[in-house]
Please model this.
Amino acid sequence: MTTVILRPNESQDQLLKRFRKKVAKSGILSTVRRKRWFVSKSELRRIQRKKSIRRLKRRQRKIDARTRE
Model:
């Protein structure tokens, strides 16, 4: 549970900004979005494999770009 206590002489906008930063840093929103719908284990593995392939291709492109220079 993310909580934020109002500091002396702090505006509501500053308090809200601090709260949003805490929520973003804790990863609550990404967890909620991920768990919004049920995803079977096989589907999850397929998604992870796809992400892995994209990540490897991206790294390879960076390495290729460096060797061309």
